[in-house]
């Protein structure tokens, strides 16, 4: 999302822009939080980000996210808390994650689809 907000170039940005244009973009709540954490974000972008629908948490989400993180860390893999929460949201909804961040490749074996 940060690359999209900065108007960077890339297939990830193009995909997000197309989904936003067609009203098909869904955000994990943690992505919304990360985006709104940018204190330099112009109000117009704040309003736009807040207009995107959020993925809902399913029962047991927090437990699954914690177990996912523990499993990856036990295997010696990088597993930032925010990344685990984002990945688990996408896994639970069976939707691909559009990302430029290679750290998410570790979550594929747990069921995360990368766009």
Order of secondary-structure elements: HHHHHH
The helicity comes to 40-55%
* Relative strand content: under 5%
Shape: globular
Query: What Rg is obtained from the alpha carbons, in whole angstroms?
Result: 14 Å
What is the mean predicted local confidence, pLDDT? 94
Task: Please mark out the parts with pLDDT under 50 across 5 or more consecutive residues, or reply none.
Answer: none
- What's the total number of strands? 0
Q: Determine the structural class based on helices, strands and strand pairing.
A: mainly alpha
How far from one another are the termini? 14 Å
Q: How many helical elements?
A: 6
- Report on the biggest sheet: none
What do these coordinates show?
This protein has 115 residues and is mostly helical. It is 51% helix and 0% strand. It is globular and about 40 Å long.
Key attributes of the depicted protein:
mainly alpha, 51% helix
Helix and strand topology:
Blueprint: H1 2-5, H2 11-21, H3 29-36, H4 43-51, H5 61-74, H6 81-93
Helix pairs in contact: 5-6
Quick recap:
It is built from six helices and no strands. It has helices spanning 2-5, 11-21, 29-36, 43-51, 61-74, 81-93. The longest helix is centred in the middle third of the chain and has 14 residues, at 61-74.
């Amino acid at each position: 999302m940060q690359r999209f907000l900065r108007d960077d170039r890339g297939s990830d940005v193009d995909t997000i822009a197309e989904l936003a244009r067609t009203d098909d973009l869904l955000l994990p709540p943690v992505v919304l939080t990360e985006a709104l954490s940018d204190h330099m974000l112009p109000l117009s972008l704040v309003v736009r980000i807040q207009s995107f629908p959020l993925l809902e948490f399913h029962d047991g989400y927090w437990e699954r996210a914690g177990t996912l993180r523990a499993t990856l860390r036990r295997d010696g893999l990088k597993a930032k808390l925010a990344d685990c929460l984002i990945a688990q949201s996408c896994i639970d909804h069976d939707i691909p994650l559009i990302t430029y961040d290679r750290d998410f490749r570790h979550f594929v074996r747990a069921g995360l689809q990368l766009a």
